[in-house]
Amino acid sequence: MAKNEQGNELERILVTGSSRGIGRAIALFLGQRSATEVVVHCVNKVAEAEACCEEIRNSGGQASCLQFDVSNREQAAEVLTADIASNGAYYGVVLNAGITDDAIFPAMSGVAWDKVIATNLGGFYNVLSPLIMPMIRRRKPGRIVTISSASGEMGNPGQANYSAAKAGIIGASKALALELASRKITVNCVTPGFIETEMTADLPMEQLLQGVPLGRAGSAEEVASLVNYLMSADSAYITRQVIAVNGGLY
Ligand code: NDP
Description:
The protein contains eight helices and seven strands. It has 250 residues and is an alpha/beta fold. A seven-stranded parallel β-sheet has the order 3-2-1-4-5-6-7, sandwiched between helices.
């Protein structure tokens, strides 16, 4: 287990999908401001994930990288089981990795449906399943934050697959929060609105932002700031909540 300069063991936090976008901002926020070791994760963009680790280390934090596909149950279990065997159980997990594959429903392929559900919702099971019992066995407080979406709360045209997966994450998070409350492990869900990342780069932002009372898109750092709080000791009495970062969208 990693130690800080005073020789104290650092709590570990895994941030899935932290090679870029919101996940990267979360990893940097946690790695640069909290007494934690951040495990940066990606599926393809290893160079970007390594760069994120480097940025954390350069500012005095601790970081390492993992690569696996959250939609691949066997691969996720293999990588995560080996990781915790070597480095110990996690204090915190941020389930952020996600994709979109939009189409109006009559034009939505079965492949697009399955892929989006398997990644966004399947990832909930595939990542947490190998990590939960080791987290419980620590017999210490823990934190799980899931990243859902405004799309999962409101439903979004062209995103039946994504809205379904993101709504599923909300239900799963609330159920898990009840199961883990007696263990002092909190589970909360963050629902971002329109956030400037590669995922939203091709959206007609000017038009979409007309529905946002604050009149602008959010930044990845504004989501990261909330996640950082939910990961901290200060948030110990907050669990089973769905918290929006959406400029007043609804
Ligand atoms: P990006 O597309 O910028 O980044 C996606 C991240 O997820 C990357 O790190 C990517 O890894 C990883 N990832 C994608 N598929 C897989 C997979 N199968 N296995 C493992 N990792 C994977 O997305 P955002 O930062 O915009 O979004 C992050 C989260 O926030 C998502 O869950 C998204 O649904 C949610 N969200 C985003 C909003 C927005 O406006 N941007 C609004 C509401 C919710 P790699 O780099 O290796 O491909």
